[in-house]
Amino acid sequence: MGLKPEGSSELLIGGKLVPGSGGTFDIVNPATEEIVGQAADATVADMDDAIAAARTAFDTTSWSRDHAFRATCLRQLRDALQGHIEELREVTIAEVGAPVFLTSGPQLEGPIADLGYFADLAESYEWETDLGEAKPMGIKNSRRLQREAAGVVGAITPWNFPHQINFAKIGPALAAGCTVVLKPAPDTPWCAALVGKVAAEETDIPDGVLNVVTSSDHQVGAALSSDPRVDVVSFTGSTATGRKVMAAAAESLKRCFLELGGKSAFIVLDDADLASACSMAAFGVVTHAGQGCAMTTRLVVPREKYDEAIALTRDSMAGLQPGDPANKGTVCGPVISAVQRDRVLGYIELAKTEGGVIETGGGRPAGRDKGFFVEPTLISGVDNSSRVAQEEIFGPVLVILPHDGDDDAIAIANDSIYGLSGAVWGTDPDRIRKVVDGVRTGTMAVNGGIWYAADVPFGGYKQSGIGREMGVAGFEEYLETKAVATPA
Ligand code: NAD
């Protein structure tokens, strides 16, 4: 059966695939600027129906209590999606502009396989804990804790790693026994809509348990974050939108889980292999055109090696020119849209007004008049207080900053409103440990270490977010705790 829509994809509401009340909207291939197809354009009224369906499914079915059935459904979803993997890969490259090499990892195959981790967790989790007996107020009681599904989850996601982020919400929320309304980004509706189609047609997931609402209108996401029938809003996106989501959620005091922006530091210590560190930093920021919240976009190097580090990083970045994302050798594809490209180019112009030097890149690549491509760009000569060192650019742009020793490097890393991720490169384990302990972020990579995995919680300190996604911690975001006491 073909998965890719001939025309428009549909919404999934209450177990039915339906058109959007707002008609359809176009999906643009960011590498070619051609129209890939259309997606159903939901209105606030469609969102209302989806929330009602999720509420009814939660309140009137045994979904939240039948752990084994949920595990079965999640494995069905994983297996069915794996059966469509090549079509999904094609869509992901066309809609997201994701380099094909990433689709065997976090852009597609990784998060689909990870549904199995959450299915296992539904079965193995300790849903009840015996707290034994105690004598509160002199009366003997036996006590236990029950963990229960939190209710209806509103999942709002961005466009940069759509499958990774959609499944990091759907997987644990369904495994926990919640019902879900997924509202993907307007730029990447098919990545979500096709999952809805597979769930409806090829799994036993009951009607209303998973709803997928694509829309070109951000207000449809706003309606989800403010609706009192929703118990948890799980949001990934920019810090600016995250603030609005939290304010909207405050009205009905719903639980708010936020994965937001980052401006992570890559710290190079003076005993590090400078060439390896610089080439890793360059590769990291150029991958998927820098559109990753956890990417290390500030390279912080010993002041005495600043010039050498600039030369090494410049050469590495210049060797990673943007290309067709469908090509196996491409590391840097396009950015998602003309708006995003212009935003990134605007930051490069801003760097110049802040006294920055463009060491390589700085514009659109020659010979690519179609597609939203930006040259890998290295900025030197600014300090950490500049806007290009403080604000999230979300393009293949790296700012290189000098430090005066390990403590100064830690201070620079922490001088940010964000605290999402980071990296350190060095030789002495004690000094590396001091940096890891000193930097206030949710993840740290040591000498190129990779923390990304289904069982590793991911999330931020400070204005990078609230809560953790993936792992047991990510699963428990979707649970409530009930304490039960009986006179013994
Ligand atoms: P965005 O904040 O513009 O949009 C994210 C989602 O929120 C979209 O689905 C959008 O339609 C919806 N939305 C917009 N306004 C809303 C409102 N008022 N109420 C409710 N929903 C609303 O983000 P983006 O441009 O799609 O994605 C890029 C951003 O996402 C970057 O800042 C990046 O750092 C962040 N991000 C963070 C993580 C993380 O895990 N920390 C992961 C990926 C991306």
Strand content: 15-25%
- Supply the CATH superfamily name of the largest domain: Aldehyde Dehydrogenase, Chain A, domain 1
Quaternary status of these chains?
single chain
What small molecules are bound in this structure?
nicotinamide-adenine-dinucleotide
Q: What is the count of helical runs?
A: 17
Distance between the termini: 59 Å
Structural class: alpha/beta
Spatial extent as radius of gyration: 23 Å
Number of strands: 22
Question: Residue ranges: pLDDT <50 for 5 or more in a row?
Answer: none
Considering DSSP H and I runs of 4 or more, what fraction of the residues is helical? 25-40%
The first-level CATH class of the largest domain is given as Alpha Beta
State the strand order across the main sheet: 14-15-16-13-12-18-19
CATH fold field value of the largest domain? Aldehyde Dehydrogenase, Chain A, domain 1
**Structural domain tally:** 2
Summed over residues and divided by their number, the pLDDT gives a mean of 98
Name the overall outline.
Answer: globular
**What kind of sheet is the major sheet?**
7 strands, mixed
Task: Report what the structure shows.
- The protein has 17 helices and 22 strands.
- It is of the alpha/beta class and 488 residues long.
- α2 (67-83) packs antiparallel against α7.
- The longest helix is centred in the first third of the chain and has 17 residues, at 44-60.
- It is globular.
- It starts with 10 loop residues before the first strand and ends with a strand.
- The model has no long low-confidence stretch (mean pLDDT 98).
- It binds nicotinamide-adenine-dinucleotide.
- Nicotinamide-adenine-dinucleotide is lined by residues 156-160, 165, 183-186, 218, 221-222, 225, 236-238, 241, 244-245, 259-262, 293, 392, 394, 420, 460, 464-465.
